[in-house]
Amino acid sequence: MNALHVLNAGGHLNPALDAEVRAVTQAALDRHAAVLALDGVDVAVWVTPWGLPETGIHGYAPLDHLVQISVNPDNPHFAVSWRTELTATLAHELHHARRWSGRAPATRCWKGSSARASHSGTSARSAAGRPRTPWRT
Questions:
Q1: pLDDT digits over 8-21, tens only?
Q2: DSSP string across 87-118
Q3: 137 domain-assigned
Q4: Does the pLDDT value for residue 116 go beyond 90?
Q5: Which residue in 92, 95, 96, 123 has the fewest CB atoms around it within 10 Å?
Q6: Contact status, residue 133 vs residue 92, Cβ threshold 8 Å
Q7: pLDDT category, 130, cuts 50, 70, 90?
């Protein structure tokens, strides 16, 4: 079982945005974890004043069982793109978690690069009708 944790005790996400972030992230986690056969991953989402300037979102997968996603609703680009970018970032970071688990296919695409993880984020953007981001071309 994978678990989503939206850290919002301080109320930095308003109730409507909190509910939508939970719904969008849970749907993406269920979808991507099924494709990657991932189990036992905690995904933590919280608000920070940092993130990529282009999106207001940042992800990190330091371990095979942990994905961290920070969001900045005050970023001027956040409101327009967060649904697509959060989903793409989660897909990207889940690929890293898969690699850390040692269960990734032994292919050139998986070893020592973010190529596969970047591809998953690009696929999520394409499915949403959004262009590739400049840092993923």
A1: 999 999 999 999 99
A2: HHHHHHHHHHHHHHTT-S--STTTTTSSHHHH
A3: no
A4: no
A5: 123
A6: no
A7: low
Q: CA-to-CA distance for 43 and 48, rounded, in angstroms?
A: 16
DSSP bridge pairs for 71: 47, 57
| Calpha distance 22→38 (Å, rounded) | 19
> What tens digit of pLDDT does each residue of 25-39 get?
999 999 999 999 999
For residue 82, the enclosing domain spans: 3-132
User: pTM of the entire structure?
Assistant: 0.78
Q: Do residues 67 and 97 touch, judged by C-beta distance below 8 A?
A: yes
Q: Work out how many domains the chain is built from and give that number.
A: 1
If you ran DSSP here, which 8-state letter would residue 132 be given? P
List strand residue ranges (DSSP E) for the chain, in order.
3-7, 42-47, 57-63, 66-71
State the amino acid at position 44 in one-letter form.
Answer: A
